[in-house]
Amino acid sequence: MNTFAAQFREQSLRLTRDLRHRLLIQNALGKYETQRDHRKAAFQDWQSARQAAAEIKWEAINHLDVHLQDFVSRIEARGTVVHWASTAAQARDIIIGIVRDSKARSIIKSKAMTSEEIHLNEALEEAGFEVVESDLGEFIVQLRKEAPYHIVFPAMHLTRGDISELFTRELGSAPTQNPEDLTMIARRVLRQKYINADVGLTGANFPIAETGMISITENEGNARLTAALPKVMISLLGIEKVLPRLEDLALFLPLLATAGTGQPLTCYNSLYGGPRRADESDGPEEFHVVLLDNHRTELLADAEQRDALHCIRCGACLNVCPIFRNVGGHTYGTTYSGPIGSVITPHLRGLQDWKHLSYSSSLCGASTETCPVKINLHHHLLQNRRNASRQKPSRIEKFAFRTYAAIVNRPGLYHLVKKAGRVLQKLHPLVRGTRADPAYGWTKTRDLPPIARQTFKEYWKDRNIK
Ligand code: SF4
Fold this sequence. Notes:
The chain is an alpha/beta fold. The chain folds into three domains: 118 residues, no CATH class; 249 residues, NagB/RpiA/CoA transferase-like (Rossmann fold, 3-Layer(aba) Sandwich); 41 residues, no CATH class.
């Protein structure tokens, strides 16, 4: 077992037994579910909306080359500088280069999972720059020196008390359990950071090919300030995010808000098309877009799993996943957790190192059913398992399946083994683990029901005799 898999197992075992942690997650997601269902009911036909979104994303991804070119030529025509980054390292170098060239010292960021993916904050800090997250949840986890817990709710694992203690310790504020007071404490700190920042860095929800614009949807107004106040704006986006037409937003914005947070629409929806024009009073003087590949084109080349690129990062699959709800986001050890993380992380970081995530699923299909763009998530998890074992077959599994095939193909032998199994099963403590490692045996967390005393055939035979 590799280190990542061992860490995952150790954390999962610990957190599934941590009732406080589980209660926090259940409470947070319980409220989300009620709101989401209420908002879904407001759609004329939620299933048709999902189907339409899946088809638009299919078109966008299957003609990605054309849509990206359109997006780039149109946004460049308005004075934006577009950079292409094949790898995470290239993206970091490009951004550090822009920050250096602009003689910046401080960077304010709005939420961007792509920046988590390339470990941008660490790289910028190592290069000597101050980086401040402006999304409230991200600001909190940054103060805790933690990664976001969830792609939409980064601090969902914390209580008001935890946040109050953190602010008292890190910001010197008076303790309070009042959410408005806690928000005001963060707001006061962040306002000054905005004023001091030389560079604003954002992600993007939907780049639009037709107009060469970037759509950013948010609830706090922090992305707007990040884009409007500093002299230089950088937008880091995955190449798969592009949508063909502006009118597609009419479907995708409510769909994302409903699936992501159970809102009809998020509070702020903005479109950015380039640097400040001569007749405009605010906005950046320089506007850079960094288009990140980082293994996305490899996934694009995989016809079977290409639709994983349809993801709009709403987080809904995490919210319904029984594994995520028990082990939480940090256990995954990846930027993208939950079902979508388990599908794409092996592509982004290596199949053999991360294949264990594809097994951390009950294959119940809840994520597939909830995904607003209809990604067949549980099927992709099975494909990852298959690909991993094809790439590096396990000798034990090979031996086990060959033996099984040899037995079931010979009725006489099968009959004998069944009988032997009833006796041998009594030795089942053997499968509980070794003496050296008794805690991790197969039956530690699973039942091993006894083999029935009679097979159906035997039962039928007896019954007829009587
Ligand atoms: S896979 Fe679907 S449900 Fe999960 S985050 Fe992406 S769009 Fe949302």
